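Protein Record: Sequence and Backbone Structure Tokens
======================================================
Scope: a single protein chain, as residues and as a discrete description of its fold.
Tokens: labelled as protein backbone structure tokens, with as many entries as the chain has residues.
Position: the record begins directly beneath this header, with no further notes in between.
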Amino acid sequence: MAKKKKAPSSNTIALNKKARHDYFIEEKFEAGLELLGWEVKSCREGKAQLTDSYVLMKDGQAWLLGARIEPLPSASTHFVTEPDRTRRLLLHKKELARLKASVDQKGYALVATALYWKKHLIKCEIALAKGKAKHDKRETEKQRDWNREKQRLMRTDHR
């Protein structure tokens, strides 16, 4: 009898932690991703990176730019691979129209926040976000540090 493959411990392929630092996340959307076979294989190995990636609306479609999927040396020997290529995001027409209207407003941007598995499909979580000013970023860091310090104090008081 064939052995069952062990399920991965996490469904997450890649995270964009910088997005939470640079933007106020307003709303999240789940989009499918149009990928080639070698890209899926690379994602299985965790070779995807979302740092500095963003979503662009063009011709009624959403496109993922700046995402990097490194090719595996064994999987991509017989054709040319392009790690930084622009990939199409698959969304419903109503979602596309809503995102387009929101991005046209001043100060809003679309950012890719995560790549993850949903059953056998790769999904991209995109967020409608508003840019943070420098003082907002500092305020967020202060708040995070204070919460961490509060937790430390609570732990030492209980002992």
Observations:
- The radius of gyration is 19 Å.
- DSSP finds four helices and nine strands in the chain.
- The CA atoms of residues 51 and 62 lie 18 Å apart.
